[in-house]
C-alpha cells in the first residue's frame, strides 16, 4: 500500500490517544505512533 493511502487510512480512523480511557491502550497507541513516525523518518533519510 502506498504511503499516501496509509496516511489517509490512519487519519480516517480518527484515533486520539488523549481520548482513550484505558491508559495502557493510550500509551500503546502513543508508542506505536512514535515508532511509525521514527521509521518513516529513517525511510525518507535512506531514500535521499
Give the helices and strands, then pairings.
Layout: H1 3-13, H2 23-47
Distance between the termini: 21 Å
Note the overall shape.
flat
Unreliable spans are none
Report the helical percentage. Answer: over 70%
Overall mean pLDDT stands at: 89
**Estimated radius of gyration:** 13 Å
Structural class of the secondary structure composition? mainly alpha
Count of DSSP-assigned helices: 2
Structural overview:
Helices cover 75% and strands 0% of the residues. The model has no long low-confidence stretch (mean pLDDT 89). It has 48 residues and is mostly helical. The chain contains 2 helices and no strands. The protein starts with a helix and ends with a helix. The chain has one domain (3-47). It has helices at 3-13, 23-47.
Summarize the structure.
This protein is mainly alpha-helical. It has 2 helices and no strands. Helix content is 75%, strand content 0%.
Annotation keywords:
48 residues, mainly alpha, 2 helices
